[in-house]
Amino acid sequence: MSVQLRSEIKSNNTLTLSLAQVSIPEPAEDEIVIRVEAAPINPSDIGLLFGPAHMNASQLTGSTQQPVVTAPVNEDSMASVSSRIDQSMVAGNEGAGVVVAAGSSENAQALLGKVVAAAGGGMYSQYRALTVIQCMVMPDNVTPAQAASSFVNPLTALAMTETMRKEGHTALVHTAAASNLGQMLNKVCLADGIQLVNIVRSAQQVEILRDIGAQYIVNSSSDNFHIDLVSALLATGATLAFDAIGGGALANDILAAMESAANQSASDFSRYGSTIHKQVYMYGGLDKNTSTLNRNYGMAWGIGGWLLTAFLQKSDTSKINELQNRVAQEILTTFESKYNNEISLSQAIHPETILQYGKQTTGNKYLINPNKI
Amino acid sequence: MSVQLRSEIKSNNTLTLSLAQVSIPEPAEDEIVIRVEAAPINPSDIGLLFGPAHMNASQLTGSTQQPVVTAPVNEDSMASVSSRIDQSMVAGNEGAGVVVAAGSSENAQALLGKVVAAAGGGMYSQYRALTVIQCMVMPDNVTPAQAASSFVNPLTALAMTETMRKEGHTALVHTAAASNLGQMLNKVCLADGIQLVNIVRSAQQVEILRDIGAQYIVNSSSDNFHIDLVSALLATGATLAFDAIGGGALANDILAAMESAANQSASDFSRYGSTIHKQVYMYGGLDKNTSTLNRNYGMAWGIGGWLLTAFLQKSDTSKINELQNRVAQEILTTFESKYNNEISLSQAIHPETILQYGKQTTGNKYLINPNKI
Q: Model confidence at A267, in pLDDT bands (50, 70, 90)?
């Protein structure tokens, strides 16, 4: 049997996390089956796992063999999840494992015994069938734990630089910049000659980035934050930011600093502010609070959601292959990920662990090993 | 001599509005000079006139002949206007008048005695020189007062529908929808078969729009606002809004309602919300308060500033000519404007009048006649 993590929001305003027992899948002709040994908990997984439920009010029920966690959902939030109500959903965007069975096709057979990574969804499962085309095959010296985060963070970092070029910007700003993703983005930008302004929230995070060679690091908890940020923007000319935080005034403050930088380089007054387009894309929502905008940065600005999936849907296959090949080649260097904790599926649905990984703070990254006892 | 309204923000944190006496301009070969008889006070003029000054603390100084109004500017706001400090600036984006002098070119001579409209800036002047190409020549039965608003509102209404088409949307939402601009947009949308959701703030404004044939009108002061808005969005499929308000939660609420409408039509759950891009462009800031976003509408959303000037700069000449020709032909019908008050230049810089037109409320529209005594 194969154990699988499930998330369900029931019409009685309750979220349920549980472990389902399903048959080990049989591979079709062009499929393989992997024993999943490593699947990260990304911010993008948390949305599906928890929905809008109040996880600090979660309760452990069921048996030791069949644990179940329940948590309440506000009536107000039910409409936002109407299309998933009463559906037991698998979770885990990406992960890696060893190929233990293969369909009859030559391409599938060639993968037997290999370590492969995939972003097929439902990776918080002991066994998972995948088509050959979904798999990124790793070099022989790479372990599943090392390959677990081959899709979301690496492709996000690369897609940010691609978006920058496509939309006519020449440098980047990134928030929560000491994260695994932020460190990757620094390595990509250093390799590709892109100037990157890193915004972090502590002196400790400044050090993390300093150590990997980041040039522009601004600490938002410093009294000089605004001045430091304007200086970095003047030096780099960055007019595009990717923001993982979402809530509060950070996106607003970045736009205001971009406008200050633009006005310091401009010679003429424009009643509508600078004519240079300033953009913040929110790709995460680490801060769930309301975002506030004072709109004190002219008219040439934008804020919006940004999603890797949407970027990939707009990209052609050759571009996606190019990016994936780069990830596989550089998985132990540029795209190396670090984790603080490896947990089992049972641990993943324990209220105490949930509160830990639910924090989503920088340097607090969890890896699920579905085959850990 | 020609009297001209001037706005200056001085380095001592003071805004000054005054009337300057300048020579009547001489037309160059391809120029004409108009006696300006009508120039509207648009929201887009207020920014230049008042800057970030506190107009409710304004004081009248100077003489009856040479009145001067001063108002304080917060130290915090000075950086946002750094490039205009200590510069005496002319004001008035658009207006209309009678051609009283012309350069030697045939095109210029042909305009003598005609009523023309222009958006040359500095229209709060008794006389204004313009190149022939800047002028929109009016049919003989049109007065300067009728032609005063031939650029900003008419071209904005048309540019909104052009933006809708260009960015792949099929219907529109508009806020402060009973304004002159809002009424124009209704007439344009009715003529062009575009479905338009009008958001207003009072039952009286509902009636104004009902009278001109608007089909979808939603009152944001009603208890049923959200439900009514979702219904209108479901009926029209509008995923693009133009918002004149800016502050508060209105833009957020529009995005949330668009997301509700999208989810009601969607069959599958997506953890990132609907994949349909939902956009709000803020083209004004009638509410100066902070905008708040709860970001509870997935990842496919955007909010940004929108400016007619930027739209025109990205458009080719043939498109602009097409739009301008339509305005001139329909200035007494589709693009008719209404004003509540015609004031002189002296009245325009009187503290009491300033507080009146500074309100920028719907149905409280002012026209400056620089040649009114």
A: low
Tell me if residue B187 falls in helix, strand or coil. helix
Residue A161 amino acid letter: T
Residue A229 contacts residue A218 (beta carbons within 8 Å): yes
Q: What is the ipTM of this complex?
A: 0.82
CA distance B40 to B108: 25
Chain A contact for B358 (CB, 8 A cutoff): no
Instruction: Tell if the CB–CB gap between B272 and A307 is shorter than 8 Å.
Output: yes
Rg (CA), chain B: 22
pLDDT digits (tens, 9 = 90+) for B319-358: 998 999 899 999 999 999 889 999 999 999 999 999 999 8
d(CA A174, CA A200): 9
A292/B294 touch (CB, cutoff 8 Å), yes or no: no
Residue with tokens 């006389």: B127
Q: Which amino acid is at B85?
A: I
B319 touches A: beta carbon within 8 Å:
no
Query: Which chain B residues have a beta carbon less than 8 Å from that of A305?
Result: 272, 295, 298-302
pLDDT (tens digit, 9 = 90+) per residue, A99-125? Answer: 999 999 999 999 999 999 999 899 999
Q: How many Cβ atoms from other residues are within 10 Å of residue A31's Cβ?
A: 22
User: Token pair of A319, please?
Assistant: 């571009």
Nearest CB to B290; choose among A84, A292, A301: A292
Nearest to A304 among B89, B268, B303 (CB): B303
Cα–Cα distance measured from residue B108 to residue B28, given in angstroms and rounded to the nearest whole number = 9
Question: pTM for the complete prediction?
Answer: 0.83
Please give the structure tokens belonging to residue A11. Answer: 């019409």
Instruction: Give residue-wise pLDDT tens across range B244-292.
Output: 999 999 999 999 999 999 988 766 666 677 889 999 999 999 899 999 9
**Nearest-Cα residue of chain A relative to residue B259:** A80
Q: Chain A: nearest CA to B207, how far in angstroms?
A: 32
Q: What three-state secondary structure class fits B25?
A: coil
